[in-house]
Design brief:
By secondary structure, the protein is an alpha+beta fold. Helix content is 25%, strand content 38%.
Length: 149
């Protein structure tokens, strides 16, 4: 009788500019070997940062990603004029809003695995949302749990 196995894989995302980015292929290409052996299971992706986020959302129309970024910028404004909106401002006007957006969206996603493939819905993709102006190399810890094929 097969048992449940657990493996962890540290990943590094390419540097992305500020905005919402579809990263499904980045993730699946880096995890193709360990995913292919899972009959049924779960992939948990944990972003090891506090000023960016991960989400599952629309994978077809790139306007959705642009609208999401624009909407989050309207909900959580930057203090570009230096009016003292936020106490935490030592790292730039984009930093505290980035922490707030990260808390609102979240730092992790979990996706079912079926027969070695991510069981995403037809229009679902894995998003990475970068909230800082400078490009950063972001780390993700991928945990795969499941029954081997």
């Amino acid at each position: 009788m097969p048992g449940t196995t657990y493996t962890q894989h540290p990943l590094t995302l390419p540097s992305y500019p500020r905005g919402s980015h579809l990263i499904t292929s980045d993730i699946t290409s880096q995890l193709s070997t360990p995913l292919k052996d899972v009959k049924v299971g779960l992939l948990h992706l944990f972003l090891q940062h506090t000023s960016c986020a991960m989400s599952l959302n629309e994978n077809w129309d790139s306007d959705v990603r642009k609208d999401m970024s624009d909407s989050l910028d309207k909900i959580v404004v930057e203090d570009k004029a230096g009016k003292g909106i936020y106490r935490h401002d030592a790292e730039g006007s984009d930093d505290m809003p980035a922490h707030i957006k990260s808390s609102l969206i979240g730092a992790s996603v979990s996706i079912p695995i079926t027969d070695g493939k991510l069981a995403l819905g037809t229009w679902q993709g894995i998003w990475f949302l970068e909230f800082r102006d400078g490009k950063h190399r972001r780390k993700v810890l991928a945990t795969i749990q499941g029954e081997k094929a």
